[in-house]
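Researcher: Following up on the earlier apo prediction. This time include the ligand. It's adenosine-5'-triphosphate, with the SMILES given after the sequence.
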Amino acid sequence: MSVNWSNYSLEQLRTHATVTFRQGGGSRPDVLLIEIDGEKAVLKDQGGADKMFALLVGPLLNWRECKALNKLNAVSCVPNLLSKPTSRSFLMTYHESEQITRLEKFHPEWPEFFDKLKSAIDEIHAAGVAHNDLRNPTNTLVTPNGDPVLVDLVACFCQGQAWNLPNRWMFNKFSQVDLSAITKIKSRVAKELITDTDIVAEDIAGRPGMAIKGFGQWIRRISRKLFTG
Ligand SMILES: Nc1ncnc2c1ncn2[C@@H]1O[C@H](COP(=O)(O)OP(=O)(O)OP(=O)(O)O)[C@@H](O)[C@H]1O
Ligand SMILES: [Mg+2]
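Model: Understood. Below is the ligand-bound prediction.
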């Protein structure tokens, strides 16, 4: 019989943790592998961040990521939401994988892998979600079959109504940034596959865009300093 994950409280789930993918602290959540009756799931708990950050920002981050996972329920390269035990935590399907820049056991055929990655990113965009943090290579995982899995949707940007032109413009820019992650990852693992058609981040919004990006990173740093010890 398969496990009914929504029967478990956060405390109960945490007692079944077998691997720590990421230890929380500062503005970062705990990310834990949970094993019950031989079945696996992944718990992301914003309660693992520093107290003030978890208290004030945790529910918002959790809500954003759950919203994106719900929208992407039909997309196979993104984990599915299994339960939401508290306002600061959620449980998702586990995908056996390694981070793309830390491969040890799995050795994908790179040309095929990058075709699949492009299709995966196009698929989440077609479902109305721009990922927004794919340039961080820890968010692209590789399965034993050489398939991509995209995780960590907390920074996502959702597509609005067709009449909402500013939203559409932003969504388009963020989608391009997602695709530029392919070029960045290629440069780390298979430089020779970069071609003229690959998207380079600097070309998307020009210098003003990169300045805005720098400003965003600055805000993030300040808020981390204010909210975390
Ligand atoms: N559904 C999943 N299946 C398998 N592994 C996962 C899953 N979700 C997360 N992981 C692992 O946990 C790591 C951290 O997850 P995630 O990126 O969501 O958290 P994070 O707090 O943003 O971490 P980071 O700051 O390192 O990106 C991933 O890089 C991956 O190795
Ligand atoms: Mg991440």
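Model: The chain has a mean pLDDT of 94.
Researcher: Noted. I'll compare it with the apo version next.
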